[in-house]
Amino acid sequence: MSIKELLALLGEHYHEGGWMMHGIAATGIIAFAIFCERFYIIWIKAKFSKEEYLVTIKKFLSERNVDGAIAWLQEREHPLANILRAGLVQFKSGDPKFKEAMDLASISNMPQLEKRTGYLAMLGNIATLAGLLGTVVGLIGAFGAVGGAEASKKAEILAASISEAMNCTAFGIGTAIPCLLSFAIVSSKTTAVISDIETVSATVSDFLERIAEKEAA
Predict the structure, then answer these.
(1) Which of 1-15, 39-53, 62-76, 81-95 has the lowest mean pLDDT?
(2) Which of 70, 79, 104, 172 could disulfide-link 109, Cβ–Cβ 3.0 to 4.6 Å?
(3) Separation CA 181–CA 187 (nearest Å)
(4) What phi-psi label fits residue 101: left (phi over 0), alpha (psi between -120 and 50 degrees) or beta?
(5) What tens digit of pLDDT does each residue of 129-144 get?
(6) What is the pLDDT of residues 141-178, one digit of tens each?
(7) What percent of the chain has pLDDT over 70?
(8) Cβ of 10: how many Cβ atoms within 10 Å?
């Protein structure tokens, strides 16, 4: 079967599914848009090297070049850079509460990595429920056809109603599965990125604490 024939077949089934198919399709389009946006944020914009950050920051701090570390971080638009910069600025000022500054920066920067991800699971559930609603509507039409239609039209109406019910079910489930898979993939990657950010932040914080203790001694 060629792509053209496959698209024509899908279009036919879409038309047979009735008005509820539009809602399911809208759900799938919204979920796809969210996945693309999350992919850009998590896989591209939030991508970083733990080793690069740790080696570079430790090098600057070993040389007591806090200004150099801050300047290096300012060149990077990344949640981790914002978190570390907040701690280093506080450390440079002589305030021992640089850990608290990093925690506050985490609170303001981390949510951007997780926002909208939960909508993928929600949209998957909505697609399933919309498919079930379309199924129920189709079955109601089928039973109504058996009870009230003319004998010559019963079979035609019954077939159309059952087709609507089955197409809605298939389309709803077919939309929900990619939504839920996308949610699992994005959530897993987001958790890994956040874990790496927390690891680097904790390592730098411990390094700053050791420097502060040496200077105090």
Answers:
(1) 1-15
(2) 79
(3) 10
(4) alpha
(5) 999 988 888 888 777 6
(6) 777 666 665 666 667 777 777 878 888 889 999 999 99
(7) 89
(8) 11
Q: Are 13 and 167 in contact (CB under 8 A)?
A: yes
For residues 109 and 79, the answer to whether their CB atoms sit within 8 Å is yes
Tell me how far CA of residue 125 lies from CA of 96, 130, 134, 173, in angstroms: 48, 9, 14, 9
- Contact predicate 123/136, CB 8 Å: no
Q: What is the longest distance spanned by two Cα atoms in the chain?
A: 98
For the entire predicted model, the pTM comes to: 0.85
Q: Are 159 and 141 in contact (CB under 8 A)?
A: no
Please report, as a single letter, which amino acid is at residue 194: I
Q: Which amino acid is at 178?
A: P
Residue type, 136: V
* Residue at token pair 């996308």: 182
Q: Which residue has the tokens 């907040």?
A: 86
Question: What's CA 196's distance to the chain center, in Å?
Answer: 18
Helix locations, the chain, DSSP H: 3-16, 20-39, 50-62, 66-74, 79-92, 98-109, 111-114, 117-148, 151-216
